[in-house]
Amino acid sequence: MKNTSVFHGGVKLQPQKVPVSLPTARLAEQPRYDVPLTTRGGHYSEPHTEVGAYVLGGQLIAGGRSKVGVHAPTSGTVESIHTDEGDTRIVIRADGLQQHIAKRSAIACEEATLDMLREAGLTGMGGAGFPTADKLQAALNGAPKLLIVNAVECEPMISCDAQLIAEDAKTLLYGADWLRRFVGAELCKIVVEDHNPASVEYLKAAQHEMTYSGLSISSVPTRYPAGSERQLVHAITGKELVAGARPLDNGVLVQNTATVHALARWVQDGTPLTERLVTVTGDACSQPQTLWCPIGAPLSALLEHTGVSVGTTELFQGGPVMGIALKDSSGAVAKHTQCLRIEHQSAPLNTLACIRCGLCSDACPEHLLPQQLHWQLLGDNLPGAQAERLPHCILCGCCDLVCPSNIPLSQQFAEGKAALRLRQHTEQRAAKAKRRVDARNVRMEILAKEKQERLAKRKAGTKKTDKQKAVAEAMARSRAKKEASDKANKEND
Amino acid sequence: MIAVIIFAVLCALAGLLLWASSRWFAVEGNPLVDEIDAILPQTQCAQCSYPGCRPYAEALANGEAEINQCPPGGESGVRALAELLGREVIPLNVEHGESKAPQLAVIDEAVCIGCTKCIQACPVDAILGAAKQMHTVIASECTGCELCIPPCPVDCIDLITTKGIQP
């Protein structure tokens, strides 16, 4: 297979996209919502409400200084705020009235601040869930020249971005233009994969109507993982990012389509991020579709809506390459939930030993040597894996797709990356503790010495010094003299 | 005869050179202690029966202690020490305690009477407070060594288990 793409490695995958259908389906109002307070990366927002409080849809229920805002998806009562395995959720019992906070007028990009964006509750909706305001803060410091709105969705099956573009390309363009001016970029490119000409048409029609300057629509060849930031920047600008660099280092800001759309809705009338598009698919799903789901909606409701009976099926969050297996459907839709996949249980793949064929290194878009990483991690050699640039693995899973021995490489690398982070963290803490204990020992020594000196001084103070002796003697002499003279005077009298 | 003299002079010169280099390039302290200290987790909990990580490292370097006396280091710590010191890998000695998940001390600030006893006990100065004032633990500096627990007269310090990565 010839690599027609402009970045190294990657794999050609069948798109198998869930077809776009208008109007977009919407999940029915649920009796209960479990709104998560922690983003995927572990950013936690403090609850700003209490149990029993009545909240309106769109009302801020969690946030805090430099925290991502979390908003109620609909009106109702806060039933509980509970923590389960470090994951805190606010449970809202909906009252069915669907009352929302009042809308406001649009905000110009000169008036907007990062804190406002933070409170709007925006996080990366392409899967990573990184707080958008933090990313834009870095962007404002980095002064990007180009803004890329990433609608590539290179992972098969998922069609959130295609659905969004078909439904509301105008708002997306509005958001892209606003964001381009906000970060001070000259150009903005909206990028889609070339197997999806319909999206390009929708975008071009909207652009024709709105005519924003500095905004263009382009496509990249269909090749996984073209939607990954670093690979996308390479494909668009023709310049490959050096190992470990972020797009901003090359003057490019990459934002996910859904994030830009959510930003636009907040800018236009103050609607916070309380719902997103989720693709529900898989071979056990009778009606695959992409639908609007409130953040916090139970996953079981999505299964019900798409005609899935839970039984001998496996549940995944995310697409077929990078998806994560879920234990059950007890979770809820989070801001980074792109796709829910329900598959019939498949026989586990027969994993064989690595035969050093080297297909994985050809496929790796980051120029890594996955077979070397595999051997290092098999021997628990974390420093060795680090020397083989394990931290630069983007966990795209291309190596898994091409491995003839079916070795779950990316899973091993994910675990290895976590182990390496933990190890570095413990080492840093140990070094810090060592510095502090050494400093304390030095201080204790000084204190002990000072105490000794004080004691010695006090002891010396009880004896008379030579000077004091001399004074005492002189006083005794003068007293004796005076007495003698007094005596002489008396005798004279 | 000449050969004897030549060799005697050479020996003397070589001896002088050795003596001089041993003076110039002398290493202060035992470098092995630093290497061992780098492996130890620096919890400073004294569960090894030495007053801290460095004293234990010194005892190990002198061959006075076993490598299985450090519960916070766990099995991996024993393995690393065994490799460095060329000793057999042995299981952790339960007399010194069991390997636990990383911990963090938390002071119940409402109960604290401000006696400063925990401040004096803390080996890494991670407790902040003054006499008759409320004390608190600096979470990012606490090693979870448990040394502040016994001196507290009102039992207001708890240990919580952290998930490994803490602030």
Description:
Chain A has 493 residues and is an alpha/beta fold. Among the domains of chain A are: 102-281, 3-Layer(aba) Sandwich (Rossmann fold); 351-460, Fumarate Reductase Iron-sulfur Protein, Chain B, domain 2, CATH 1.10.1060. Chain A has helices at 114-119, 132-142, 160-183, 197-210, 229-237, 257-269, 299-305, 359-363, 370-378, 382-387, 398-402, 409-462, 466-492; strands spanning 25-26, 32-36, 46-47, 54-55, 60-63, 70-71, 76-84, 87-94, 146-151, 187-193, 215-220, 252-256, 275-281, 289-294, 313-317, 324-326, 339-344. Chain A has a six-stranded mixed β-sheet with strand order 1-14-13-17-15-16, with helices on both faces. In chain A, strands 2-8-7-4 form a four-stranded antiparallel β-sheet, with no helix packed on it. In chain A, 43% of the residues are buried. In chain B, 35% of the residues lie in helices and 8% in strands. In chain B, β2 and β3 (136-137) form a beta hairpin. Chain B is elongated and about 90 Å long. Chain B is built from five helices and four strands; from the N terminus they run ααααβαβββ. Chain B has helices at 2-24, 31-39, 53-61, 74-85, 117-121; strands at 103-107, 127-128, 136-137, 157-161. In chain B, the strands form two sheets. A two-stranded antiparallel ribbon of chain B has the order 1-4. With 167 residues, chain B is mainly α. At the A-B interface, α12 of A face loops of B.
Q: Write down the CATH topology of the domain at 102-281 in chain A.
A: Rossmann fold
**What gap, in angstroms, lies between the N and C termini of chain B?**
77 Å
Helix content of chain B: 25-40%
Strand residue content of chain B: 5-15%
CATH superfamily of the domain at 102-281 in chain A: NADH-ubiquinone oxidoreductase 51kDa subunit
CATH architectural label of the largest domain in chain B: 2-Layer Sandwich
**Radius of gyration of chain A in whole Å, from Cα?**
34 Å
3D shape of chain B:
elongated
Regarding quaternary structure, what we see is: heterodimer
Backbone structural class of chain B: mainly alpha
How are helices and strands ordered from N to C of chain B?
Answer: HHHHEHEEE
User: If helices are DSSP runs of H or I spanning 4 or more residues, what is the number of helices of chain A?
Assistant: 13
> Strand order within the widest sheet of chain B?
1-4
Task: Quickly give the structural class of chain A.
Answer: alpha/beta
Strand content of chain A: 15-25%
Number of domains of chain B: 2
Largest sheet of chain B: 2 strands, antiparallel
State the helical fraction of chain A.
25-40%
Query: Which pair has the most extensive contact?
Result: A-B, 15 and 19 residues
| Top-tier CATH class of the largest domain in chain B | Alpha Beta
CATH class category of the domain at 102-281 in chain A:
Alpha Beta
